[in-house]
Specification:
By secondary structure, the chain is mainly alpha-helical. The strands form 2 sheets. The protein has a two-stranded antiparallel ribbon. Strands 2-3 form a two-stranded antiparallel ribbon. The protein has 4 helices and 4 strands. It is 60% helix and 8% strand. Helix 2 packs antiparallel against helix 3. It starts with a helix and ends with a helix. The protein has a domain of 86 residues: Orthogonal Bundle (Recoverin, domain 1), CATH 1.10.238. Bound molecules: calcium ion (CA) (3 copies). The site of one calcium ion has 8 residues, from strand 4. Pfam families: EF-hand_5. It comes from Sphingomonas aurea.
Length: 127
């Protein structure tokens, strides 16, 4: 009889302790979920093919050169890719420049850029 009573009490306590604890935990998880940005990992290959697609989009007349009038004005960083400063970006200037950017972001040089590394690179740029 006694034994069963104690067991019931322990069970009751465990449930009571568990209840609010779980609630707190799920609230914290909700907060985390709200602030959460999905982690992304971009491989060098993916980045390169995304860059190639971007080049194709920008090169409207398809002559493998982004000429001055094809250059989006909003993206001044694109001009940094013009290595020989002739005002145009060739396909190799574009892809090599983009991959150099990727390598600069890939802090641990494992061939992938995580969202963490991207954040760090962005923060470094602002300084
Ligand atoms: Ca063109
Ligand atoms: Ca050029
Ligand atoms: Ca990396």
């Amino acid at each position: 009889m006694m034994r069963a009573g104690v067991a019931m009490m322990v069970l009751g306590l465990a449930t009571a302790a568990c209840g609010p604890g779980d609630d707190e935990k799920s609230k914290a998880a909700d907060a985390r979920a709200a602030a959460f940005t999905p982690p992304s990992v971009t491989s060098r290959l993916d980045y390169g093919s995304a860059a190639a697609r971007r080049f194709r989009t920008l090169d409207r007349d398809g002559d493998d050169v982004i000429s001055h009038d094809e250059m989006p004005r909003a993206d001044s960083r694109l001009l940094e890719l013009d290595r020989n400063k002739d005002g145009e970006i060739t396909e190799s200037e574009f892809s090599e420049g983009m991959l150099k950017r990727f390598d600069a972001m890939d802090l641990n040089q494992d061939g992938t850029v995580t969202s963490e590394e991207r954040r760090t690179a962005r923060a470094a740029r602002k300084e």
